Please model this.
Amino acid sequence: YGEIIVYLPDKEYHYQVFAAVPYDNRHILYNYDGSDPRRVTAFLNSIYQVREIGAQFNENVPVSNDDKFLVLSTCLAGNSERRYLVLAVRQAEIN
Model:
């Protein structure tokens, strides 16, 4: 598990990866409202319920629906109905 750093013109964000999972191809922003804590919890629960080959979790990184997190999505080779998600929780903001 690693760290993801997002560099912006005036700051940088440091994230810690907490999950990498195969997932369906639904549009996350359309299906889970990030401003609603219940829907964020539902999304996180759906991530932690993945029990497929290729699913990886870092149990040492706590995540709650109050946290800021990053979701990276890419194709799952050979399957247009699936995506592979890498999720990371924000650890620091540096100005």
